[in-house]
Amino acid sequence: MANATLKVQNQPVNEQLTALLEAQQEVSTHESLSRQILSTIARNEKDLADLRRVDSELPTLNSRREGILADIAIGNGSQQKLTQIDQAITTEQEALATLSTKNTPKIKDLEATISGLKRKVNDLECQRPPLNHKLGRAKAAFIKSEAERIGGEYVTVAKDTLSKMRQLIALSNIYDKCREHEPAFASGNEFQFISLPSFRLEALKEHSHGSMGWLLEEVVLTSNYPEKYIKTDMEAELERLISVGVEL
Question: Is the pTM higher than 0.70?
């Protein structure tokens, strides 16, 4: 859940959503930069290793010179061979010196570049916790705002449900007075109360009541259907039915 990416489609734009999308973009940019720098460090370290690695014949030449000197010491060597190997060693040393002169500035620049890049990585690592904290708070704020928005819709639906329930009860009472042998379609305790749970949201705060935190005080019809509702609701329904031509 912590690493899940929050995707919002067909979502009304609000302050919390804007802040969340900005926080997500900040973290994404931070992660992208971190990956880029780490990749650059790896590439520079490979270049540095290639520059430091020198394929030289000098060890082999020095070994051959030792053999020639040993031969001379026991009377089997040749001064000419010694001169030739010394010239070859001098040539190799000069080539290595030239290469070193050429590569040393590059090596120093690469070393400095890598050092600077690693400091940037450390700086980015220090920025990661506050960015993640900001993102977490932005997610929580957005989700809370969504809950508040849905909570407002929940209250509207609850009120509409109560209104329809009262209308059905009124129709049932009217029906009960004009039926002959048909049973009423609502009777007894089946319609005497309706309850919906509340939530700890500002959108529902003024509508919740009681120790159980039920939603909307008028929704909770305890024990008996209130007499005031019976009269007013029946009058409203009778007026509506009469208005469409029903004679009652």
Answer: no
